[in-house]
Every structure is written in structure tokens, then in C-alpha cells.
Amino acid sequence: MPIDVPRYLHLDLSKHVMSNISRFRLRAHTLKVEAAAWHEDGSCVCDQCPGEDEHIQNEVHALLICQDHRVCELRKHFSFLFSPFFEDFSAAQPFLLQQVNNQLVHDFLSQQNNRLFLFSF
Ligand SMILES: [Zn+2]
């Protein structure tokens, strides 16, 4: 079975971006879901979302759902990456209100636009 080398490894990205992409892919990041796995009393609830709704802070949450104003501003700046995949996404609502299926997340992360890596990482 041939091994598919991830596309980002063929791009001219900075070491910092490469490192961050690799850490994200390997779940070697600092999102709450990972921190909670290592700390007995850790919480995996996002501490960046405003409001009282509790969301698990995992990779999909950080990419698409988190309502932190800084992340929302970044999504608005890179809205052209989201609009083709998520009908609900808009400048007025730069986040999704519910989980999406894994195939759609995969398709989003597999898009051929190299600027995806500048948004994500
Ligand atoms: Zn959040």
C-alpha cells in the first residue's frame, strides 16, 4: 500500500508553521482535550468561548466552532477557505453552531489552497 505523504511537507513553509502543523496532526498540541487526557483534574471544556454553553475544545472546535473573538477574526480574514465547504459560515457568523462530519473536515483540511496552512497554524 503506497504511503501518502502529507501535502504540507512538499510546500515551502517556515519551520515554525511546519512544526505547528505536525504537532496538530499528531495531537501534540495544547488544546484542552489533550491537556485533560494528561491531568487527572483537567477539564476539556473550552475556556475561550463566550457564554455558558460548554464545548469540548478539540481540533474541530478550534478550527470551526470556537467563538473566541480572535479566532473568529482570523476566520473572517480567511473566509474564502471556509465558504466553499460550510454554507452556514459568514462574516456575521464566522463559526459553526454544530459539529460537522469527519469527511467534511477531511475535505476542508485537504483543500488545495496553500493559505490554509497560514490560517490553521
Ligand atoms: Zn471555544
Give a description of the structure.
This protein has 121 residues and is an all-alpha fold. It has one domain (30-116). It contains seven helices and no strands. It has helices at residues 15-25, 32-38, 59-65, 69-77, 79-82, 102-109, 116-120. It starts with 14 loop residues before the first helix and ends with a helix. The mean pLDDT is 90.
Summarize the structure.
With 121 residues, the protein is mostly helical. Helix content is 42%, strand content 0%.
Oligomer: single chain
Q: What is the H-and-E element order? A: HHHHHHH
Cα-based radius of gyration, to the nearest Å: 15 Å
Counting DSSP E segments of at least 2 residues, the number of strands comes to: 0
Average pLDDT reading: 90
What shape does the CA trace take?
globular
| Helix/strand structural class | mainly alpha
Distance between the termini: 30 Å
Helix content: 40-55%
The residue ranges in which pLDDT falls below 50 over 5 or more consecutive positions are: none
The tally of structural domains comes to 1
Biggest sheet overview? none
Strand content: under 5%
**Number of discrete helical segments:** 7
The distinct ligands, each listed once, are:
zinc ion
Provide key terms for this protein:
mainly alpha, 121 residues
Outline the fold blueprint:
Layout: H1 15-25, H2 32-38, H3 59-65, H4 69-77, H5 79-82, H6 102-109, H7 116-120
